[in-house]
UniProtKB/TrEMBL annotation:
InterPro entries (UniProt xref): ATPase_P-typ_cation-transptr_C, ATPase_P-typ_cation-transptr_N, ATPase_P-typ_cyto_dom_N, ATPase_P-typ_P_site, ATPase_P-typ_TM_dom_sf, ATPase_P-typ_transduc_dom_A_sf, ATPase_P-type_domA, HAD-like_sf
Name recorded for this polypeptide: Ca2+-transporting ATPase
Lineage top rank: taxon: Bacteria
Phylogenetic placement of the source organism: Bacteria, Bacillati, Bacillota, Bacilli, Bacillales
Organism: Terribacillus aidingensis
Main location: membrane
MF-aspect GO terms: ATP binding; ATP hydrolysis activity; P-type calcium transporter activity
Length: 882
């Protein structure tokens, strides 16, 4: 049996506690020694040094370190220093990004109540919550944070807010009776007060049944420890790219050495030449440029109201195939709102959303504020204790969200609770989960006493004797009750939570007994409430579907509510499955993986369920984005490919587990992030294409020369100049390119897609071959077998290579053709090309630089030849494929 199945007496016996005296101090000491403090263990964090050194485990970084060693052997110390600086800079950025990434458990600990009121040795006292033990008797009152898991043994109108733990959007009314059911989730264990939940109403007493890691929230801490972050798609692709470059470098080195030795060149010279080519293969600036591109994306995302905690998170979101979204506060406003009123046989539509009091009441399409409606709204306000608060241009509710919705509805009709002071509060019968209702006794300005009862419609309709119709009342017959039940059903079908209102009037001077307040009642009407869906979320979900991204709702709410909201938001298609947590419990992991693609809504789920859902989707090949705001979302957020938390309503635990924080809690911001992520990856492909095509061109120039038994067309310092200047600035500018028009009309990339997919490898090779060919042609035309022309020919080849690359960079802006986009559309690229050209002219025409870079002056006719040859690769392929 489970704790919720035991009676209060059985719980006290099993825990060895006395509800009248509590535990003895000596017993507390022994239990503390046996069970430990009321804290959960933290994941052992890596030292600062280990975290920094861990940045050098990346395969691409290891490739660059190898390049550093090779450059040093060749005497290219400037190159070595440049590579080391790049590697060190990337390591620092990664270190500072990750240093704050694993604070989830320490933030979880902050949810612990610092003090608790405990009964020990027959005396009530306040002790540190960390010192609570199994069997302690703990007192709770409104405003307290529950210090441990408690089996409640006495309650008075006790309600706790558990949304951070269970996902429930409403406070839960608590009771003490045992629950004779198996496999109840936390949200249904109404006789348990869970650690970290907040007491919003009433008071109660409970016996500690779980401390530390044995609490519900402690189990989440255990999940966080066991859950490991997945390698992001970008990290996987760059790792594959590094491996490809290593293979190419080794093959080219071997090919060059063999070709040179075959031609009769000394082995030592050919080894140096081969290693020089191998170094040229590796784009030293690639990691730095990737970091710059991601950082620029981060800055753009801040303007879109999203904070990126890990650089790779934005690109990962661009790869997403599924978004698993929490309902409450993410897809909905997390603000209960009266949307419909049923009164005297008429339905009223209520406009406005959330706690903002703007809106009105419409009947039959026309605005209505008739007397019966105003009276009904006044009853709702008088029977509620919630208050509206204006804070930073935002309306908030202090009190129960349901009562807050009734107060907001009243304010829409001009009924301000603070101005109803001529109505005197006399008595209250508090809400009880068994009675499903509450009653307040009010004295009107005329001196009459009115008992206002609000609660569950099924209870109040049965108890009511009369029904108010207009300003009159009539007996409530069976057929009339049927009409009311039909109205309740119609509201429920719209995902509306129904609250009924009844009254009983007493003559002036009569003092009724408490039991009379809920007798001979007159039924007044029904309120239909909902936590409304965000309109922008609905639009964003539709746009995501067009982009090939599936949205899945995962919530702790009831299945009917979840399904109805999902339909409103266009999440649930015809034939889409709605699954409850208890259904997941019956499914094996293999069964879940088989069915998960047909599931769109998961209701009444636990943190373990959320984690299973994310992992099942990942197992079948999806890139999963998980959104959420509560403690219960944190494990799934951390396990997902990209975790997204809410900045306003989100707990610190959820934020620390995530890679992206939405400052406006708006699902629509996710769509903007997806667009940004896709743009960043597209830009990464652009500069990878540019860098590698340029490097292929450099390699082939050298290789062609060896095969044709020509002198070296490029000297090492020229190759270094090209790699650091011509390659670097334009590549960074490509990383700042704007999104192409069709970026959100494309399907998500396949999770296993490599960097060279969709023809990128072919583009790199073909453009590289042409760049290398025109460069070697320029060299041969100027050299003509005369050693005296060598520097002149090398200068021409060097200039042709640079110009071919600077023209080719415009071809890289589109996957289609150089003519597909406005060449002036990226002002940063224009600037980068101009700077590169100025630097090129400097090393050619500034006399002191000529000996260093092995250059000489070029004439106008030389430039005409160079520009003609340089334009061939880009223009030729521009016409071949549009």
């Amino acid at each position: 049996m489970r704790w919720y199945q035991f009676s209060a007496e059985e719980t006290a016996k099993k825990t060895g506690s006395d509800p009248q005296k509590g535990l003895a101090t000596k017993e507390v000491t022994q239990r503390l020694k046996r069970d430990g403090r009321n804290e959960w263990k933290e994941e052992k964090s890596a030292s600062q040094l280990a975290l920094f050194l861990g940045q050098f485990k990346d395969f691409m970084v290891l490739v660059l370190l190898a390049a550093t060693v090779i450059s040093g052997i060749l005497g290219e110390y400037i190159d070595s220093i440049a590579i080391l600086l790049i590697v060190f800079l990337n390591a620092l950025i990664g270190f500072f990004q990750e240093r704050n990434a694993e604070k989830s458990l320490s933030k979880l600990k902050e949810l612990n109540a610092p003090m608790a009121r405990v009964l020990r040795d027959g005396q009530w006292s306040r002790v540190s919550s960390a010192e609570l033990v199994m069997g302690d008797i703990v007192s709770l009152t409104a405003g307290d944070r529950v210090p441990a898991d408690l089996r409640l043994i006495a309650v008075t109108s006790l309600e706790t807010e558990e949304s951070a733990l269970t996902g429930e959007s409403l406070p839960v009314a608590k009771m003490t009776e045992p629950l004779n059911k198996e496999q109840l989730g936390p949200q249904d264990q109404v006789n348990i007060a869970f650690m970290s939940s907040l007491v919003t109403r009433g008071n109660g007493t409970g016996i500690v049944i779980g401390t530390g890691s044995n609490t519900a929230v402690g189990q989440i801490a255990e999940l966080l420890i066991d859950t490991k972050r997945k390698q992001t798609p970008l990290e996987k692709r760059l790792e594959k790219l590094g491996k490809v470059l290593i293979v190419i470098a080794l093959l080219l080195t071997a090919l060059t050495v063999l070709a040179g030795v075959y031609r009769g060149n000394p082995l030592y010279d050919m080894l140096l030449a081969g290693v020089s080519l191998a170094v040229a293969v590796i784009p030293e600036g690639l990691p730095a440029i990737v970091t710059v591109a991601l950082s620029l994306g981060v800055q753009r995302m801040i303007k879109q109201k999203a904070i990126v905690r890990r650089l790779s998170a934005v690109e990962t979101l661009g790869s997403a195939t599924v978004i698993c979204s929490d309902k409450t506060g993410t897809l909905t406003e997390n603000q209960m709102t009266v949307k419909e009123i049923f009164l005297s046989g008429n339905s009223y539509t209520v406009t406005g959303s959330g706690y903002d009091p703007s809106g009105g009441f419409y009947r039959g399409g026309k605005e209505s504020n008739d007397k019966a409606l105003i009276r009904f709204l006044r009853y709702g306000v008088l029977a509620s204790h919630a208050k509206m608060i204006r804070k930073k241009k935002r309306w908030l509710i202090d009190g129960d969200p349901t009562e807050g919705a009734l107060v907001v509805a009243g304010k829409k009709a001009g009924l301000d609770a603070d101005k109803l002071t001529d109505y005197e509060f006399v008595h209250e019968v508090p809400f009880d989960s068994k009675r499903k209702r509450m009653t307040v006794l009010i004295r009107t300005p005329e001196g009459k006493l009115v008992a206002i009862t609000k609660g569950a419609p099924d209870v109040l309709i049965d108890k009511a004797v009369y029904e108010e119709v207009g300003t009159d009342k009539k007996p409530l017959a069976a057929k009339d009750k049927k009409v009311l039940y039909e109205a309740v059903d119609q509201m429920a079908a719209k995902a509306l939570r129904t609250i009924a209102v009844c009254i009983r009037e007493f003559p002036a001077g009569y003092e009724p007994k408490e039991e009379e307040l809920e007798q001979n009642m007159t039924f007044i009407g029904l309120n239909g409430l909902i936590d409304p869906p965000r309109q922008e979320a609905k639009d964003a979900i539709i746009d995501c579907r067009k982009a090939g991204i599936k949205t899945v709702m995962i919530t702790g709410d009831h299945v009917k509510t979840a399904a109805a909201i999902a339909k409103m938001l266009h999440i649930l298609p015809a034939g889409g499955k709605v699954v409850e947590g208890k259904d997941l419990d019956r499914m094996s992991d293999e069964e879940l993986r088989t069915e998960v693609d047909s599931m769109y809504v998961f209701a009444r789920v636990t943190p373990e369920h959320k984690l299973r859902i994310v992992q099942a989707l990942q197992h079948v090949g999806h890139i999963v984005a998980m959104t959420g705001d509560g403690v219960n979302d944190a494990p799934a957020i951390k396990a997902s490919d990209i975790g997204i938390s809410m900045g306003i309503t989100g707990t610190d635990v959820a934020k620390e587990a995530s890679g992206l924080v939405l400052m406006d809690d708006n699902f629509a911001t996710i769509k903007a992030a997806i667009k940004e992520g896709r743009t960043i990856y597209s830009n990464i492909r652009k500069f990878v294409r540019y860098l590698l095509a340029s490097n292929v061109g450099e390699i082939l120039v050298m290789l062609f020369a060896m095969i044709l038994a020509l002198p070296m067309p490029l000297v090492p310092i020229q190759i270094l100049w090209v790699n650091l200047v011509t390659d670097g600035l334009p590549a960074i500018a490509l990383g700042m390119d704007k999104a192409e028009d069709e970026v959100m009309k494309q399907k998500p990339r396949h999770p296993n897609e490599g960097v060279f997919a969709r023809g990128l490898g072919t583009k790199i090779v073909t453009r590289g071959i042409l760049i290398g060919s025109v460069t070697i042609i320029a060299f041969m035309l100027m050299y003509q077998g005369d050693p005296d022309n060598l520097i002149y020919a090398q200068t021409t080849a060097f200039t042709t290579l640079v110009m071919a690359q600077l023209i080719h960079v415009f071809d890289c802006r589109s996957e289609k053709s150089v003519f597909a986009r406005n060449p002036l559309g990226n002002i940063w690229l224009i600037g980068a090309v101009l700077i590169s050209m100025i630097l090129l002219l400097a090393v050619i025409y500034i006399t002191p630089l000529q000996p260093i870079f092995h250059t000489t002056d070029l004439l106008l006719r030389d430039w005409l030849l160079i520009m003609g040859l340089s334009a061939v690769p880009t223009v030729l392929f521009g016409f071949m494929k549009k």
